[in-house]
Write a structure and sequence with these properties.
The protein is of the alpha/beta class. The protein folds into 2 domains: 323 residues, 3-Layer(aba) Sandwich (Rossmann fold), CATH 3.40.50.12780; 98 residues, 2-Layer Sandwich (GMP Synthetase, Chain A, domain 3), CATH 3.30.300.30. The protein contains 10 helices and 21 strands. The strands form 5 sheets. The chain has a 9-stranded mixed β-sheet with strand order 4-3-5-6-7-8-9-14-13, sandwiched between helices. A hairpin with a 2-residue loop joins strand 16 and strand 17. Helix 1 crosses helix 2. It is globular and about 70 Å long. Bound molecules: 5'-O-[hydroxy(phenylacetyl)phosphoryl]adenosine. The site of 5'-O-[hydroxy(phenylacetyl)phosphoryl]adenosine has 22 residues, from helix 5, strand 7, strand 8 and strand 12. Keywords: Ligase, Nucleotide-binding. Pathway: Aromatic compound metabolism.
Length: 426
């Protein structure tokens, strides 16, 4: 582990303050958008004399990225840009993000750190099944694995049978992909008559979409690996913002020397105390092309500053339980898809595949839940349905309008990109 990762918190805060001041000054000088925002909020960059003063700065939002499309938030000239990525917004314009040479170095550094925290080193072979292209997953993991000195197999996503063959034949130690795709790789190996636990893989670095504990267990058991979670987003840098350590697997260490995290109440914007669930807000502390101040990620989680068993002093965020805009309201009861997932996947008799369909009938919202049965399930379906219904009622205080159990393999699998679990037909 690099010494920065176990820096005394006072020293870390001094570094954060210095970098925050530089970033704010840079944004005010080079990005008209921030200059306007600071003027409107009546703040002057020179007033930032403590890290807490960050709370006086205005937030940046997804809408700001869209309004400033394509490059209104860039702080450097086009000539200094070395790479452009974009996030795949489902609606509207994509969010365009740019990197200078130094930003790419930074990205590779935080990704190499992330891979090392996951237990990898320069002797490992890393199969990177995140999509290459505008999505930051592919090239982000690629750059980090190269920086670490590992051998990278840039398979990108899809072509799953070939993924299985290459993992087996090239002795891949680690697979990088979304959690849903990791399970699909296991399933495909089984279809090919290959026991997934016999593959040489010992680590899966998953991320880019939510993953509940039962889902992680399914990945770990089916592939015989340690599942290590990664978190990041294009607007901040891509993957490489936070990662679990192999030693504890107990929360994701945020690389706080470069990305400053806060948790706010999504309704009021007020800061929340350590340990409380709220919306994650991130500030970049050393980006050149695209400095981002107090970005409202929309991701719901909590932070702890307790030192980790691994010795790292950097804050840990909990797994993302959902997005502020994912909230489902079922007859007045609020819940997140991940809560439904956690409740349902606790049953050994179901497979980790489900979908939620939202509809509107006679002016009322309805929710239909479809869950796959485990491949070897031959018990009483009606009794199982009742058990699941009861569990949802006891843990989340609601029952879906329809709950269907379907045969193993009936729900469509996602081979490329992020999985869709909620289909809104309203
Ligand atoms: O998904 C970057 C990434 C690639 C992270 C590979 C990890 C691994 P975007 O496409 O911009 O970037 O999407 C960012 O994905 O705001 C979260 O809502 C979600 N997300 C990312 N990681 C996780 C995670 C990449 N570990 C958006 N758990 C974020 C839950 C995640 N959601």
């Amino acid at each position: 582990m690099g010494s920065t990762e176990s820096l005394a918190r006072d020293d870390l805060r001094a570094k954060q303050l210095q970098r925050l001041r530089e970033t704010v000054a840079d944004a005010a000088e080079n990005v008209p958008f921030y200059r306007r925002k600071f003027d409107d909020a009546g703040v002057s960059p020179s007033e930032i004399d403590s890290i807490e003063a960050i709370e006086d700065l205005p937030f940046t939002t997804k809408e700001d990225f869209r309004a400033e499309y394509p490059d209104g938030l860039f702080a450097v000239d086009t000539a200094d840009i070395r790479r452009i990525h974009a996030s795949s917004g489902t609606t509207g314009k994509p969010k365009i993000v740019g990197y200078t040479e130094r930003d790419l170095d930074l990205w590779h550094e935080v990704m190499a750190r992330s891979l090392a925290a996951a237990g990898l080193d320069d002797t490992d072979t890393v199969q990177n099944a995140y999509g290459y292209g505008l999505f930051t997953g592919g090239l982000g993991f690629h750059g980090g694995a190269e920086e670490l000195g590992a051998a990278v197999i840039p398979t990108s996503s899809g072509n799953t049978r070939r993924q299985v063959e290459l993992a087996r034949d090239l002795g891949s130690d680690a697979l990088c992909c979304t959690p849903s795709y990791a399970l699909y790789v296991a399933e495909t190996a089984e279809e090919m008559g290959i026991d997934p636990t016999s593959l040489p893989l010992s680590t899966v670095l998953y991320g880019a979409e939510p993953c509940t504990e039962p889902m992680r267990e399914a990945i770990e058991n089916r592939l015989g690996v340690a599942g290590i979670e990664n978190y990041g987003l294009s607007e901040i840098i891509g993957p490489g913002v936070a990662v679990e350590c192999r030693e504890a697997q107990d929360g994701l260490h945020v690389w706080e020397d470069h990305f400053y995290p806060e948790i706010i109440d999504p309704a009021t914007g007020e800061a929340l105390p350590e340990g409380e669930d709220g919306e994650l807000v991130l500030t970049t502390l050393s980006k050149e092309a695209l400095p981002v101040l107090r970005y409202r990620t929309g991701d719901l989680t909590s932070l702890t500053y307790e030192e980790c068993a691994c010795g790292r002093t950097m804050a840990r965020m909990d797994g993302v339980t959902g997005r502020a805009d994912d909230l489902l309201v079922v007859r007045g009861v609020n819940c997140y898809p991940s809560q439904i997932e956690a409740a349902v996947l606790e049953f050994d008799s179901v497979a980790p595949y489900y979908r939620i369909d939202l509809d509107r009938e006679d002016g009322l919202d309805t929710l239909a839940l479809t869950v796959e049965l485990a491949a070897d399930y031959d018990g009483d379906r009606e009794a199982l349905r009742e058990e699941i219904r009861e569990r949802l009622h006891n843990t989340l205080s609601f029952a879906p309008d329809e709950l269907e159990l379907v045969a193993y393999g009936s729900i469509e699998r996602t081979e490329v990109g992020k999985v869709t679990r909620v289909y809104d037909h309203r």
